[in-house]
């Protein structure tokens, strides 16, 4: 299904230069786009590709347009943020090509009579919805999801197959949850008594704001007494663990395999790199960026980027450097001894 | 539903000071408790909050009671281990508020005629129980779980939705398994033949003792020839990987995102921090504590705490220190050269 | 069910020395094998056990046979690669003991009329197969799996329970996918616009070659515009994350808990250790081995083994070495000052 550029610009804004009736059927990078597609330039280093691309149209910034706009054969959309414009254009095409979601409850679903499912919602086969759960308008709960007692799921949210939401958790509107996600399992809370562990019942909930996305097989535990909170606009990648009583500030993005330990508090507009680990009970202010593979052991009170991982090397070189790291104290002692000797020599020399 | 303090003390022990008819309906921290709740003091640093708390009653140690007991307006329960007492009191309230589990097999479950399910067990919708499986008294198998051939699940165990247990694995009594857990998938075993991999069938089982808890999306692989063993009382957090032929000693606790490689043997009463990684084929004795983010490459034969992760820093500082770590050998060479020069100077000086 | 050695050798090759009618019913290590089993010697360090083993037969190399063959009481199979021979013999016994898979679609499965399922395939209870999906001959899709629109699954592939495959992904022949795996969830792609995130629709697919194995709870994201590709013979352990647009070369093995960030390209015949993390957009050539717990930040253009993790130590020793690592720059400054002083002293001395 193809679209005229003017429809795109009417919907998404931007300044159109060239033929507004140009038809485009999809979006692709500069090097791959065909003559029926639109492309985008979001990084000046790709400017030289603009003259060569086959694309029928291009999205680019005013700064890039001033340099390479004239070299380009097709229509241009000048946008303040070409990468965000690309994302929205891709959404525009995806929406056009999407198979419509059919409202209704599949006969192989098990919905408790005490649950409330909006008439416009889609409930797939083998979904289980327990007593007191509320599923919002146009929500889409795919095959095999299990929605516990009293759970609330906001309108237009989408749960892909085999998601589990434990009792009493609340999920906002337009939330996307990928397969294998577990929301609201018990936090890891035990009291030690003579070496054995006594379970502390986890009676808090998980509260998830609007416009959150949660990647496949990520887990978010319910709070111990208070709640675990994920604010609006947070984006979580796959296989992330968020422990009980964490609080993740709005619009923070966390990459895959990261772990956030219990009661950690992460600010708004932060980013946490892949496999980074945030210690329990620490606070990270807004606008902090923790690099991949980094363990944040203490609170971070100043915005900025923080890093800590061992540099990779050829195995033999690593062995040497690791042995020296273990023996840094020995190295320091040698420096101290040298300082002492040099001081004595200097004093003698000056006598 | 509220409870008199005397009922609590009859059930859990402790020395009651004050009005035994005081009614409490739940438990909360010192700062949050309302006048209808009981609270607890498990850390002396919170003593100053005791005089201010709204709570109708407090659990505390004899030592704390001697200092702050007199300042407190309500009833006191003096306990040897106030934190463990809190956990048990919370269990007491949770049990009172729990929705009773209904025995029986949901009509949307698929139970093989060759399986044995105790009459008091609860089998949820879309559960699949294969031939020869045995489900114990009052066990609770929630929606979407798949229980393979010949699996044994002990009495009072609870499997939350969407757990998978492969054939022949055995799970003890009072075990709690959270959603997304996979027990008994094949271990990662291959023989290399000219660059390609030949699969080694994994014919061992997973054996899980009594009173184990397993967090969401954790995976425990079956043994190659022998079994993978998780002893009684072990507590596993979310997203942990336990490889084939591991042996985890009783009452060991492992935090989220940790990985235990094949044939590793971890002792009793150990703790493994979040995202720690235990190498294959190593042995760790009882009472070892491995810190978060630490890779244990060799066996540990002495109790104690072990740590190894790169300290976090501002990104620019990390870049400098990482460059120096790579070049530690250069630093050592410089120290050696200095030592030589200083020795020569000293010898000359003494001539 | 027992087998004569001559059947084994007819099927798997190797040179048989001794009684070809020797019956064996299974395979076990040297120390555990009973008189009705066959054993194997794949590492010369176990040669001393050969004379003692109870096993009725042994698989070993010509080199080992020359040394210990004469000491052994039973029949011997001399093989070029005894460990690979063991793997194949174990497969031989496993196939004999396997419960046959019954072809057909379970009545509790939900198969769209627009899907094509081979008559010899097995579709378990609560499986959902959507419109346009194609399931190959003798494929086995176990309980609770969800197969999206247009997915292709090759012949003889096996999906264990509760696997999710998103729309349009393609899986080759003889692929094994363990429980909890999610194939084709959206990659983590967002454009930032004024601090909030705009989702980039993920319209690529996941393409998985023949003879791949994927461990429990591993996730492989679909590509953003192009596809994510896992070539033939790749072996993935549990809880691995493979991000959008990655390309994993044939016969590469990746251990548990590893993470491969977006658009990373890993060569053929590589191995990636447990919990290793591969940065996005980097290229690793064939025959590279990345050690466990290592973060590969830059492309690797030379075969070999690469390592980078902080050495573990007693906690107090680690604290000292970590403090020194943070202060390496101070140490370098001291060395420079010493070099300067020593130079001055030496010059004075030579005056």
Automatic annotation (TrEMBL), chains A, B, C:
It holds the Pfam family LpxD. The keyword tRNA processing does not apply. SUPFAM superfamilies: Trimeric LpxA-like enzymes (SSF51161). Pathway: Bacterial outer membrane biogenesis; LPS lipid A biosynthesis. One of its GO terms (molecular function) is N-acyltransferase activity. Residues 107-186 form the Mannose-1-phosphate guanyltransferase C-terminal domain. Keywords: Acyltransferase, Coiled coil, Lipid A biosynthesis, Lipid biosynthesis, Lipid metabolism, Repeat, Transferase. Its EC number is 2.3.1.191. Homotrimer. Catalyzes the N-acylation of UDP-3-O-acylglucosamine using 3-hydroxyacyl-ACP as the acyl donor. Is involved in the biosynthesis of lipid A, a phosphorylated glycolipid that anchors the lipopolysaccharide to the outer membrane of the cell. Belongs to the transferase hexapeptide repeat family. LpxD subfamily. This is UDP-3-O-acylglucosamine N-acyltransferase.
């Amino acid at each position: 299904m193809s679209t005229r550029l003017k429809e795109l610009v009417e919907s998404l804004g931007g300044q159109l230069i060239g033929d507004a009736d140009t038809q485009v059927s999809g979006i692709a990078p500069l090097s791959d786009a065909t003559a029926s597609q639109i492309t985008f330039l979001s990084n000046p280093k790709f400017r030289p590709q603009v003259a060569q691309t086959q694309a029928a149209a291009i999205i680019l910034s005013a700064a890039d347009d001033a340099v390479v706009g004239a070299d380009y054969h097709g229509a241009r959309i000048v946008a303040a943020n070409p990468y965000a414009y690309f994302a929205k254009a891709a959404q525009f095409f995806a929406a056009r090509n999407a198979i419509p979601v059919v409202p209704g409850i599949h006969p192989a679903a098990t919905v408790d009579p005490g649950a409330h499912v909006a008439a416009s919602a889609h409930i797939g086969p083998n979904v289980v919805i327990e007593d007191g759960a509320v599923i919002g308008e146009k929500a889409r709960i795919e095959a095999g999801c299990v929605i516990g007692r009293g759970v609330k799921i906001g309108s237009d949210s989408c749960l892909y197959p085999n998601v589990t939401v434990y009792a009493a958790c609340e999920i906002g509107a337009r939330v996307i949850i990928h397969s294998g996600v577990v929301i609201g399992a018990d936090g890891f809370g035990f009291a030690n008594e003579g070496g054995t562990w006594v379970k502390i019942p986890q009676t808090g909930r998980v509260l998830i704001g609007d416009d959150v996305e949660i990647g496949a097989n990520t887990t978010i535990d319910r709070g111990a007494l208070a709640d675990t909170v994920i604010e609006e606009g947070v984006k979580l990648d796959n296989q992330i663990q968020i422990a009980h009583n964490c609080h993740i500030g709005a619009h923070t993005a966390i990459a895959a395999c990261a772990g956030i330990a219990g009661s950690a508090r992460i600010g708004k507009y932060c980013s946490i790199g892949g496999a980074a680990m945030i210690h329990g009970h620490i606070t990270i202010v807004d606008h902090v960026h923790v690099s991949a593979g980094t363990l944040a052991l203490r609170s971070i009170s100043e915005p900025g980027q923080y890093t800590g991982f061992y540099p990779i090397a050829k195995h033999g070189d690593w062995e040497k450097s690791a042995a020296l790291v273990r023996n840094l104290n020995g190295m320091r002692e040698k420096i101290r001894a040298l300082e002492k000797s040099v001081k004595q020599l200097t004093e003698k020399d000056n006598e």
